[in-house]
Amino acid sequence: FKAEEFKKCSQANFCQRNRDKSPDSSTFSLASGVVHDGRFMARLINSAFPEAEIFLEVAAYSDGIVRLRVTEDPSKKRFEVPDVLVASLDRSRSPLFATRLGSPATSTGLRFGVTDISIQHNPFSVEVSRNGKTLLSLNRRGLFNFEHLREKKEGDADGEWTEVFRSFTDTKPRGPESIAFDISFHGADYVYGIPQHALDFELPPTRGPEIQSEPYRLYNLDVFEYLADSPFGLYGSIPFMLSHSRSSGHTAGFFWLNSAEMFIDVLKRGWEGEGAAPPPAGESPIETHWIAESGILDGFFFVGPDPKDVVRQYGQVTGTTAMPQLFSIAYHQCRWNYKDEADVFGVDKGFDDHDIPYDVIWLDIEHTDGKKYMTWDHTNFPHPIEMQNRIAAKGRKMVTIVDPHVKRDNNFPLHKEATAKGYYVKDASGNDYDGWCWPGSSSYLDVTNPEIRSWWADKFSLANYVGSTPNLYIWNDMNEPSVFNGPEVTMPKDNLHFNNVEHRDVHNAYGYYYHMATAEGLLRRGGGNDRPFVLSRAFFAGTQRVGPIWTGDNAASWEHLKVSVPMLLSLGVTGMAFSGADVGGFFGNPDAELITRWYQLGAFYPFFRGHAHLDTKRREPWLFGEPYTSIIRTAIKTRYALLPYLYTLFWEAHQNGIPVLRPIWMEFPKEAEIAVSQHFMLGSDILVRGVFEQGATAVDVYLPGSEPWYEAWTGKTHRGGQWVNLKVDLATVPFYQRGGSIVPRKDRPRRASSLMVDDPYTLVVALNSSYAAEGELFIDDGKSYAFEKGAYIHRRFVFANGQIESSDAAPAGASGRGFAPSTRVERIVVLGLPSGNSANLRRAMVEESRRTENLDLTVEVGPPLLHQGVPSTAVVIRLPNVLIASDWSIKIAGL
Amino acid sequence: QPSSQLYRGVAPADRPHFQGRSVRCRDGSKTLTLDRVNDDFCDCVDGTDEPGTAACPDGKFYCRNRGHVPLSIFSSRVNDGICDCCDGSDEYAGTVKCANTCTEAGAENLGKLREQVAKYKEGVKARVAYEDEAKTTREEWARDLEQLSAEEGILKKHVERLAEQKAAVEKVEREEREWKERIEREKEEAERKKREEEEGTAKEGQTASETVSGTPQAGAESSAIEETEGGGIPPVQGEGVDHFDPITSPAEGLEEERREVAEAEGPTEGTDPAKEDESKLSAEELGARIRARWTGGGGSTPPPPSDDDQIALEAERELREHEHDLEDDDHHLPEDDYHDERDAGSDYDPERDADYDDHDDFDDNEPYKPPSERTESPHTQESAPPATETTPAATTWWSRMIGSSSKLFKMFSSRPPAIDITEAEGVKQQHKEANDRYQKVTSDIKKLKKQLKLSYGKGDVLLKLYKKCFEFTQKQYIYKICLFDTATQLEGHITTRLGDWQEIGSDNVDTLYFKNGDRCWNGPERSMTVKMLCGSENKLLSVEEPSRCEYEAQLVTPVVCSESEAQALIKELEERESELKESTSGHDELR
Description:
Oligomer: heterodimer
Strand content of chain B: 5-15%
Mean pLDDT of chain B: 74
Structural class of chain A: alpha+beta
Structural class of chain B: alpha+beta
Radius of gyration of chain A: 28 Å
Helix content of chain B: 40-55%
Largest sheet of chain A: 10 strands, antiparallel
Distance between the termini of chain A: 62 Å
Low-confidence stretches of chain A: none
Low-confidence stretches of chain B: 207-271, 298-306, 322-363, 374-399, 402-417, 587-591
Number of strands of chain A: 56
Distance between the termini of chain B: 17 Å
Strand order of the largest sheet of chain B: 5-6-7-8-9-10-12-11
Number of helices of chain A: 13
Largest sheet of chain B: 8 strands, mixed
Shape of chain B: elongated
Strand content of chain A: 25-35%
């Protein structure tokens, strides 16, 4: 990490001039407004620049979303980020009603549903409340600032019109245009979100008494060897912050749609310093200060009230996670670089020889001909199609890397075509921007232009991408964009995009557009019926609709293992449900213990990939010898066994925006232990506590709630709402199933997930204190969009009164159309039956819609999962053989 | 239950386990009724009860593969839609139709097995011969060592004597020179006096003082010569001094150069690029520098080098050549030892010198070779460097030496001012030759001792390959592996050391290790692991770099052809052949 290569707030003029402002220094007031077509519109007056024409608009959307826009006259052409908000958003707009419309000196009240918006006119400020309780406010501390576009004149401060950082000069032809304001989160214990940063999930304050910190920065950057504890901006940005209150159990959120460089301070009480304007009397919310370099204020306030409501509301605005293909949530094997075809086959064989499942093998940049993407190194990869077919014959896939920089090589047709069509980003003087990346001199496709995105998408057709097959998927790296000889290893801000938009305005969304164009390419390649899989490093709000991301170039250290959990939690609560960290750590060499712990944790990452830097030792899972190989095998097989449950969680994320990997407070909103981010929930039913301590022999695990928890391996029961000291050895994974849940599994892990499609299910019933439980299962073909037309199965399982029942969870008639798997249930495991009872259980009776008579089943005591050494602590119903797709019920005799 | 289902996936040897009225899980956890065997439900977590289904994740499935070899596959392969057994028995569910390919596969496999057996037979023969040869060679070395040690003792005394004579000759020479000078001065004096007498006596005092001041100077010079040359056996380090400039030794200069090269190569730990003025870098230079963080000196397919890179490469090559020059120099001492040497005074101590064996004084890379082998041309496969010189037979040299020196001795018994210059030079020459010979003998003794001390594996079998080199060409690289020496990679004129000989694996006796090669940019020191496979002749089969800078080679060699493995293969072949005969004659050994 080279701190001096990246800007601090003090080196970014717009940040410093806003961060220097004192509380109550805002000079803005509201002239009288009107409600028109269900929106509120008004003019804002800046007393320091009365000539500036600034407008406010307030709108609302169903289910507790308030939108507040502040911008100038459209002729000023301030940049508004396109293609992030979902197209259907407007349809969910709820009309606002004025409860009071005040004169300029007073205030305005607006309402929809149980949400109230109160606007103070002078000074201008906004409060959003639900059921009369204030949740969020804007400019409560008077830091609101909106710099209108202006002519340059004598006496303008240094740095307002040109700015120099190291050897780079930013010409800033539009001058100062920053926007800043404070947002208060009322009643909150912590704030979360605003990825991507490598640090705690509970965002530590960055400003206040005795705190010396940079603000959180959102500026997509390729940071070499990033630190595991820094507010520094990394590869992607989502300007969305959430707060949670443990006393009320309520969550609120604020999202600012703006893709310019942004700094955010989380303010600690007393941050104003002595002599400054004191905070208003009364309760003390968590105050935050948001500063962006350009663009407009387009802010969304989410009032929840529950944690899942807030992420759902955010999903309503920016979209939900694209439904992934089943293979893509299995295990991926990557390395920079598998050198040649023999290497690929050797690694493939290694997995088979050691009975370790994997679904996808990846090729990094060295597979190309001179770093020209979508070409092949003819020496090392002379038969790419045969290679992919051979891998695909085992039900597996391949991924190649495709980056946004294009080699400036006149013999490269793509470069010639892009040059001729004028498809590259331009430098400040209007010439094709020439920067350095892997291939040396490179130019960058202007993917902010829809025409160019469409052209790019067509490059992925099987005809255009020579050597590709339908089993090849794509990895977009370096799309921040990374420019080795640019300021802060990225593009100069005065570069020019489509419609003469400066790079400054669109920087944080560049990678998103590139990712979007690539995914569109795969969609077209598959005739619109093969769900794209494109992994991206850069991301922005909305990326969840496109594909997964990973946390970039981490390192093989315990710190990086540990920080991966808060990083993925932050991504999850801000909509990026499909994400993961490189297992093993990209830089450096993990020792056997570290990589083993990493596989055990990574098996619960939504995106699960092992990756390694070019200079590292080989680290395929079998290279560490015993007992490590067996423990890693078990970790990966556990992932495969849980795929039905995990796939169902992705369906939930796709439907509702609820993340796959969740903070405990999302499932237990009123839980007292709130800052326990070494723990996480995988869905609502599995709790995992990573082991981040080298040589650990015991770890403290917090089990929330009031219902029992079951150790997944041993079936051992613990009551909820307590800390448990768990003895661990290297093979132990602290992983628990919640009492009251039913988790569907497939306990026959095979070489690849596609080979498990017809395998029978195991249902693991973990009873709550009332001896009841429930769970769900979603199944479809795992690859196409047929589910959108009803070709899926969505089951609900309920266990009560000694009987488990399966019923259709989909709306009537919505599911099962053209999809009727004949897969059966082979085993039902019941945890938590009163022990006195279980010895008497012998029989269970089945009633299934396709069968007419009742059938007797054997019930006996068995292990919770099929692994040697696991004690027989569960009641097991043997071979019910009911169809997973049917309605049925099974009653255990004697209960 | 029909036996076809009961025994599905069961190896013949395991059948008795399923022949009772019940089946016990091998881990002892349960006893099951026979109807629970292969009923597609896993009762024993170790897989005992489901040999023929995929129900137990830890189980194994046995395929008979008639016509080929039987196979035991993971249960996870059963009915997964992929044909794993050549007889197709693993895919009985009907989702996929597997053709029986065992006959073809078996025939091909049998052919390979026959080749293998032939190879092993030859290999074992060759290996036994290696061991016999090793015995002889070891004996020869021991004998040579004994002879050389004897010679060393005699030589040492002789060289000492010659040194005395040389000192005597030099003394005579000096006296003669002084005498001549005196005569010359006297003559001049006489002439001067004569001239003065002719010209008058005015400048007499001045001339006298000049004469006085000139004389002590000459005396100081000659004593200095005595100090450096009169110390018995001329020390090796004395000659070393001639090579090293006391102010800047070449080693120091080298260090200097190394730093410069490192800087030209790009940023390293400790140099802070931020402190350099980035504006002085061209866009390409800056881009290349940042890229180098991830890639080091460049990936396996680096882009065309910039001018900068080119300069760095040139400098690197020059540095390597320089290093080689120094290594080739017999008198070069490693930097650190050089200082010790000077501090330790001038007494030659062979014991102390032996401590330096690990370094590169005295062309250590050149193995000791008995005289009979010295003129031999190198083996075709090996490319060991040729012997540096061809010494005449020791006896001839010896008699010549003894004869001439005694003659000289007589000559200097009288003390005439006149001296035979040729004879005096002869004495010095004799001394030099005797001393050189002495050095050579001590060095050969060191080498022999070292060679005798090394481990050559069981039966000294690797001794046959001592310092033998093998080459393998791959793409633009030539790999050269010299056993008990070094492994290198040549790319054009650039040589990279992949490692120095380390050892034979202590657990993996078929593995050879080379370590501490040239350091990788941003990475570890290069290393090379050589895996030996049985074959009738010595040949490098492959060289790979699976992780950056960690090389792995396969060497086919008789060295690892073991009798027991050969017997096992022969037995397997016999079994296969008799099986084949049975099956073609219609018998079926399946019960």
